[in-house]
């Protein structure tokens, strides 16, 4: 069994692996890639492809796309070789990559496919490992009863196998679930059991800092602040020393919670005896740790830690008397949490689970059919053997009578088995209907929860500009009254009147500005509502690309009248219409155009006056795909940026100019929504091209 399965098993349930130094990582990857051309298309090549996949996503700065690509190559080859265990291993690896990437639906789908094969092959180790990993997905989605059930199955499986390292891992996982459920005493008990078991093994293959952090968090929740501080600080030091950033980010998050709790605890003893500082100083430390957690979680694309860090930071800022900052952090918390626990995730998880249950029952059904056919064939062979050994007519006649009787019995058995199969088929259909009904209920429940969050978000978003409008309106009314009173005086102060008029003008400008903000919020909500109900229809992509190019260019010109760029279009005549959601593809194109204009504008500020900003859009059809290419002669990007360009929250723009979500959402729209691909080609300092490929209907 490939070694990466065991390695993954021993990592923190909320983290991502981080191993050797960069040079060692690259050397390992280069060695594997050099071996690939010499490898024969056999099971060894499957393992090599999985090793390369693992090296890319674990060693090479989380290069998820390459990791997924090589894991899929391994899966394809294992399928061609009909190597079931190799297929299960590849599915498990894919699940691990998607889980590290925080793509929970894809992770669960891969895990369940691997689990089905592992159950067929009765591979106890793989069954227990994948079962526990599924528990991780449900932990991240806050479905704690399901998570607990899967973790306990994994724990039992590895206990039976005598795998102490895995047992320690799942004990910690169960403790984490109890912590999330508020059963802090149980959580502490399981974390201490896990720590003790690892200590007896000398933390063989395990992360000591991970367990120190988990135990520290457990002590924090039972308000044993001295022990919590000791364990968390030790874990922090060890994480920094070993470079295990996936634990470091969790340590930052837990320490920020600890200092916040100590600061707001009604009992002042911890402040004076443990921290020996004031409430304000403790809150400042909490804020520093929270900011560190947010920054590192963004860098690692760890959405699970990120949204909880945002929540803690919002609470700290509120206690510090920073309402605007607290509200901004709270919005980030809601937005990021929705990316982790969303209606789409819930729907896709339910579909993945339905498919797994259906596949299992379908396999059992086919097995029974094969069993029935085999039994009948054996009976026919037995009759043939008996007939060939009979020589006398009387014996032959008796055998014929016997054969007829057996045939009648066989027909009776076959009829009964057919009835049983039909009954089981009906039960399967009934189970599927029940599962679909449950899925519908889950979707409705998630819709209502999302509606509540959306309503609260709308109220907060619109209330802010409206407060400004109301405040400036009241002040303006007072200024008008003051002006009227001054005009009635015999010795009018004209300078004062002029000052009042200037103030009135400024107030009206601010009212107009914040009114525009409110209008923009409403427009955005209406656009969101329209796009969410979009349906696929046959669309002229040439016209769509041209329309959004002009829209993006004129929108930029409205903000910066001095900006000019050459627009070049090279559209394939008679381009076949494609069945797409026009609003969503338009949103992707708008993102790509805006990025292109930003790139050429940046280069224009750094190059001689003879530079001509140029954005080119072309369409073509080849190899069963329709291709849209958006290229520019702007600043380009280095390889390090290209590797991360489609990751959520990654942006090269200055703070305030980009959210880091545009290309990530565009990638999901093209790949998941339309079954296509979105790639980037770039030469640093020279050019960039984004290429959309959409499957052409035959």
From TrEMBL:
<dbReference type="InterPro" id="IPR036097">
    <property type="entry name" value="HisK_dim/P_sf"/>
</dbReference>
<feature type="repeat" description="TPR">
    <location>
        <begin position="88"/>
        <end position="121"/>
    </location>
</feature>
<dbReference type="Pfam" id="PF13424">
    <property type="entry name" value="TPR_12"/>
</dbReference>
<keyword id="KW-0418">Kinase</keyword>
<feature type="repeat" description="TPR">
    <location>
        <begin position="209"/>
        <end position="242"/>
    </location>
</feature>
<feature type="domain" description="Histidine kinase">
    <location>
        <begin position="457"/>
        <end position="698"/>
    </location>
</feature>
<keyword id="KW-0732">Signal</keyword>
<keyword id="KW-0808">Transferase</keyword>
<protein>
    <recommendedName>
        <fullName>histidine kinase</fullName>
        <ecNumber>2.7.13.3</ecNumber>
    </recommendedName>
</protein>
<feature type="repeat" description="TPR">
    <location>
        <begin position="168"/>
        <end position="201"/>
    </location>
</feature>
<keyword id="KW-0812">Transmembrane</keyword>
<keyword id="KW-1133">Transmembrane helix</keyword>
<dbReference type="InterPro" id="IPR036890">
    <property type="entry name" value="HATPase_C_sf"/>
</dbReference>
<keyword id="KW-0472">Membrane</keyword>
<feature type="transmembrane region" description="Helical">
    <location>
        <begin position="385"/>
        <end position="405"/>
    </location>
</feature>
<feature type="signal peptide">
    <location>
        <begin position="1"/>
        <end position="20"/>
    </location>
</feature>
<feature type="coiled-coil region">
    <location>
        <begin position="404"/>
        <end position="445"/>
    </location>
</feature>
<keyword id="KW-0802">TPR repeat</keyword>
<dbReference type="GO" id="GO:0000155">
    <property type="term" value="F:phosphorelay sensor kinase activity"/>
</dbReference>
<dbReference type="Pfam" id="PF02518">
    <property type="entry name" value="HATPase_c"/>
</dbReference>
<dbReference type="InterPro" id="IPR003594">
    <property type="entry name" value="HATPase_dom"/>
</dbReference>
<dbReference type="InterPro" id="IPR004358">
    <property type="entry name" value="Sig_transdc_His_kin-like_C"/>
</dbReference>
<dbReference type="InterPro" id="IPR003661">
    <property type="entry name" value="HisK_dim/P_dom"/>
</dbReference>
<dbReference type="InterPro" id="IPR005467">
    <property type="entry name" value="His_kinase_dom"/>
</dbReference>
<feature type="repeat" description="TPR">
    <location>
        <begin position="128"/>
        <end position="161"/>
    </location>
</feature>
<dbReference type="Pfam" id="PF13181">
    <property type="entry name" value="TPR_8"/>
</dbReference>
<keyword id="KW-0597">Phosphoprotein</keyword>
<dbReference type="InterPro" id="IPR019734">
    <property type="entry name" value="TPR_rpt"/>
</dbReference>
<keyword id="KW-0175">Coiled coil</keyword>
<dbReference type="InterPro" id="IPR011990">
    <property type="entry name" value="TPR-like_helical_dom_sf"/>
</dbReference>
